[in-house]
Amino acid sequence: MVVFPNAKINLGLNVIEKRSDGFHNIETVFYPINLCDILEIVKSQNNESALFNSGIIINSNTNNNLCIKALNLIKKYFSLPEVDIFLHKNIPFGAGLGGGSSDAAKVLSVLNLMFCLNIGDEKLMHYAAELGSDCAFFIKNKPQQASGRGEIMSDIDVDLSGYYFVLAKPNIFVNTADAYTAIKPQKPEIRISEIISLPVEKWKYLLKNDFEDVIFKIFPQIKALKEKFYSCGAVYASMSGSGSSVYGFFDRAVDVSDFEKDCFVFTEHL
User: Fold this and answer.
1) Is 228 a catalytic residue?
2) Is residue 37 among the annotated active site residues?
3) For residue 174, what are the β-bridge partners?
4) Which of 37, 103, 134, 210 is catalytic?
5) What pTM was estimated for this model as a whole?
6) Domains of the chain with bracketed CATH
7) pLDDT tens, 15-36?
């Protein structure tokens, strides 16, 4: 079975407080985009499961890969035959786009369908949340207002139809754990859900990503990239997650060559 795990962006991100378990409570809106990996799962002809990687190469221990962790999690509760997972990576790492989380969520969903496990969406979300804070979002995969670690979600209406979306990821890797260590949690003056209900043209002055203050000091290139979005006419621009990707919404088609120098670029008409 072949599926296409997609990325997400964060519309605003407030880091509110550090929790007793070491994680942080956040407030954000997850929004899916059509930048996708390619994932195929087939029954293995061997006596053990395996992960095969192409595209952007994963330079880490296979056992630490979220796809394998998702497979092993399901195996704790269900008897499954061995499988081969073929993952072609298009979504950049260290970009704030949730690519690994999306891959893991799709592994859960595909195994559920392939082997008729009859796991409902709520249970799949529970399993996904064990793998990562934003994994559960990719089970729903539609705009969600998120809180807690990112696993507490509710539907939210966000209309971005008609906008031209541009995403640029510079050749910079941001470690999420390090970003959280450096940030100073604070409660926002205005909730993101209130800001999202306003016209997009007003987001520039109200919708913030708390990680920008930290990351821009470490990587001024990312700050310059966001400024370029606005100089090119973006209605709204922001870093996604803890970075390093930056995105913008435009009310007209834009020449992406302005962003292609030293950057991975993705664009779509919403």
Assistant:
1) no
2) no
3) none
4) 134
5) 0.94
6) 2-155 (3.30.230.10), 164-269 (3.30.70.890)
7) 999 998 888 999 999 999 999 9
